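Anyone able to model this chain together with magnesium ion?
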Amino acid sequence: MLTVEEARERILAHFAPRESEEVPLTEALGRVLARDAIAHEELPPFANSAMDGYALRAEDTRGATAEMPARLRLVGEVPAGRVYAGTVQPGEVVRILTGAPLPAGADAVLQQELVTVAEDTVALAGEVSLGNNVRAAGEDVRPGALLVRAGTELGPAEIALLAALGLHPISVIRRPRVAILATGDELAPLGTQPRPGQIRESNSPYLAAAVTRAGAEPWSLGVAPDRADELRARLASADTADLILTSGGVSVGDYDLVKRILSEQGHMDFWRVAMRPGKPLAFGLLGTTPLLGLPGNPVSAAVTFELFGRPAIRRMLGCARVERPTVRAVLEGEDMPRGDRRHYVRARLRSRDGTLMARATGAQGSHLISSLQGAAGYLVIEEGEGMVCAGSVVPVLLLNDALPWDDA
Ligand code: AMP
Ligand code: MG
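re: yes, here you go
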């Protein structure tokens, strides 16, 4: 039996980053940056005022006090979006608004609340220091700075930074196309009425959602009955996919055809992976298209997608890190028995006085779809003897990146 890490390594060896495409920044949320984004400008692009007030020469205010205010001559105004044409001379001030470029000659801004203005004279009752209320050019970003590293998933903050530096449109990695096929005679597709003995099919809706969230584009191949010809035809139609995901048909039952067809038509490995849920897992190439055969039980399909499918997608996206973060949490609720395989337990997480606490979502049978809901992570219960008791610290694989996470 392979360990999870061995199986993942073998799978990832078949995936490389896809080609890039340009998208407008307005469509870049959640996309992965293809090349390092480097600043070609400075930010702020010019020295400007942080306040509504008066631009002046700091040295003109030397010695000013409430008793002996400095009196300076108001010679003009510069609103945001304009440039003051002249140069501020000794003894002069220019009215300035927030964001307006600092006029030539000026080196400080005094906010308007601190001056008294009478006709064209501005009186100030104290000294103003050099650079006061001035946002320096390049204070935020210098030309040549690395703004966002290739392989980063773009969020609102990255999009703002790229926009501020004019990096639009932007090169991101193309979304991989992931074909999804559910197999089983017992499955009634979404929107159809199950016949007696059938169940409603839920793995392909799950996988389509999870694939989208992983950053790829799902491509539904529908639901195939347990018939070799049907399966062959559906799989053949997906040869332009970057990855094919199937669910069901990989265990030892008589109708487990995925294995057979894939052995006939491609290069398949069938593995038993030392994990619970989800022991049977198939991986191989159908022609040149990688295929990951997930188990049919909904929880097994979900967990194996998370451990093997999502990292493959993240690798195709060129992500710096293909795995989700693992954190440590204190187990609460029931003690957990260890077993002969590593167990991934769906768990809720909460913070208690700043400590992360984890509790199983309930019964953990691999057919219990409701146990997936509310799970913020998988507790990793390593194989072994005895119990992991409430109060112990356990690793938790996070299922979203909502917790703060630092690579350093
Ligand atoms: P299999 O791996 O095909 O032996 O399926 C294992 C279990 O998962 C059986 O109880 C199936 O009915 C169930 N199952 C398989 N595929 C799906 C699916 N797409 N949606 C819901 N349940 C499924
Ligand atoms: Mg089946």
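Helices lie at 4-12, 156-164, 203-214, 228-236, 257-265, 298-316.
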